[in-house]
Amino acid sequence: MEYFVQQLANGLTLGSIYGLIAIGYTMVYGIIGMINFAHGDIFMLGAFAALIVFLILTSFFAGIPVALALLVMLIIAMLMTSLWNWTIERVAYRPLRGSFRLAPLITAIGMSIVLSNFIQVTQGPRNKPIPALVTDVYHFGDITISLKQIIIIALTAVLLTIFWYVVNKTPLGRAQRATEQDRKMAALLGVDVDRTISITFIMGAALAAVAGTMYLMYYGVATFNDGFIPGVKAFTAAVLGGIGSLPGAVLGGLLIGLIESLWSAYFTIAYKDVATFALLAFVLIFKPTGILGRPEVEKV
Amino acid sequence: MTQPSALENSGLMMQAVKEAVFAGAVAFGLFILYVGIETYQDINNALVWRTRWGLLFSFVAIAAFGRFVVVGFIKPHLDKRKRAKAKAGIPEVTDHKGFFHRHFLKIALVLLLLYPPLSVMLAGTQGSLKYVDNFGIQILIYVMLAWGLNIVVGLAGLLDLGYVAFYAVGAYSYALLSEHFGLSFWVLLPMAGILAAFWGIILGFPVLRLRGDYLAIVTLAFGEIIRLVLINWTVVTKGTFGVSGIPKASFFGIWSFDVGAPNNFTKAFGLSMSSAYYKIFLFYLILALCMLTAYVTIKLRRMPIGRAWEALREDEIACRSLGINTVTTKLTAFAIGAMIGGFAGAFFATRQGFVSPESFVFLESAVILAIVVLGGMGSLTGIAIAAIVMVGGTELLREMEFLKHVFGPDFTPELYRMLLFGLAMIVVMVFKPRGFVGSREPTAYLKERKAVSGSFTKEGHG
Description:
The complex is a heterodimer of chains A (about 300) and B (about 450). Chain A is built from 11 helices and 4 strands; from the N terminus they run H-H-H-H-E-E-E-H-H-H-H-E-H-H-H. Chain A is mainly alpha-helical and about 300 residues long. In chain A, strands 1-4 form a two-stranded antiparallel sheet. In chain A, strand 2 (about 135-140) and strand 3 form a beta hairpin. In chain A, helix 10 packs across helix 11 (about 270-285). The longest helix of chain A is centred in the N-terminal third of the chain and has 31 residues, at about 1-30. Chain A is globular. Chain B has 17 helices and 6 strands. At the A-B interface, helix 2, helix 3, helix 4, strand 1 and helix 9 of A face helix 1, strand 1, strand 2, helix 7 and helix 14 of B.
């Protein structure tokens, strides 16, 4: 039982990170209907920004409190990825908005290749380890929960609440939902569609930066190709939960995190990703639009 | 055309300067951390950093200058040309073709057939290896894969992001069956195709109900599952070590290319020992396989099944209401596409003599899909051109030794191969979203055949 609860905690931590990335996928998909393949690499850029900021901070202010350092890392990483995602949308996706559906997918894949290779060229191909930032652990009986895990889960919960509020209760969220439903009609009714889409990309990127910073704090290492696997998993999570649905993305992320940690704990670690992907295929056979996705009604 | 007035011109320049400053500021923000600061490990293995202001400055300068030129000169020029074109009323696609255009395919085929002897003549027996193997065979493998994927994506409109899985199935089928049962290439080539087709159907069944992007992620997952199984099922596949010592293909069993064999090709003809002959043989083999793929694709497009694929791509609901069986239509598209991937895989295994899961990563699927889309989906010629430009172009980077003289001896052009590949994907898509060949030749027509613009065909929703 203790073992199970322990794995549950690990799974929730991992799932939170996936969920944060998945929101970026699902929001962009919801609003312009494209798979933003480069989103995983935006997450990687966030982790690298946090890493570089950490190095600068520790070399200038040796005794800086960890909480402050984390906050600065988080904010700069968020600004950084927001600027990147904004630029990417302007340069690579916006010119193709009226084009056929596969065109932005190809530029997104191209962008993903560019971003990971850009970091490989500028920062080198080796693993970048940093010293452990948060080392406190708490014992509840036989269960050990680290402060890192608590931070990640709590931060995810807080951000999701803020996010949910923004999307459902503010004028910005209303503009987003209107753009999602009918872009042309929203534009006719005075919604600045371009601006709304840009803000959506920025929001997704900021969450990816949070995920990246948390990933760096949790594992203490970053590599140029870190974006791919978490990116694909988060995308899987978004689809599993029903792409376009915010709670679905988080649910999918948590589900995948749990499956991964429980499968590695009780079966073999080698096939954990196979289990995740097989589950995705299995769920989609019975619910072709994901767990919380709205069934697409296609009219002739 | 009237010359723009001086006032208009200075306004344009002002705008260009403004935009250039803005682009420079954005570039500064984008690159300050990643380019301006370099992280590396010092002697104690601790991660430290140093600044690279010079490099950062050149990035910012390039961005600003590039934007200035685009806004100030290129864009007004393009606009002017577009207006002139619209005034003259020249349609985008014309039926008027020059001699080269009309006989393009024949000329291309003759050139391909002459390519190996030409490279032997120009670069010598040993020197031709590079051109025949690294360029010729490499490009033709991608042409074949892209033509195979074209059946699934371009004709049937099913977005497949895991095509490399079938390539892997074909390669491992040949590698493992030849190792354990000692069967020859010519027996295993069709078998690899059939096994891959079988896997295509296995993938096809669960995804029959899925549409568009759901289909994309499941196919991606399928590709990853195959790769992960290849890595982890070490008893059979030897995991990441891969299968080595895969036998070479023989000349239909008449002549062998193994060095020790009594019926060795070079011995039989009294030629000097060289692997170049084997490579030339492989070149013609993959060329024949490509031609077979093209022939099958062209013929299928005129057959009921091909018409059903294209109808499915355009509108699935209309398809169903007209009584087309979408299940068999989708499954045959997956199976035939996969079979071609399997053939290419078996060829790849015999060419490399070694297969490992490393060769079948998602990036390969992405590259193949990119070639299909960049070529203009559905157009065989366009896809071949895209493969030559994208694969040949990146291979060319390996050869650019002279760049070392420009950028110093530490410069390795290979590092920038994928970076440039990705950039090329973006640039081509942004400027030619319909791909290199933007016109289609319909198979059904009234009275006379007319090419139509690619914009008239839809890519469909799975």
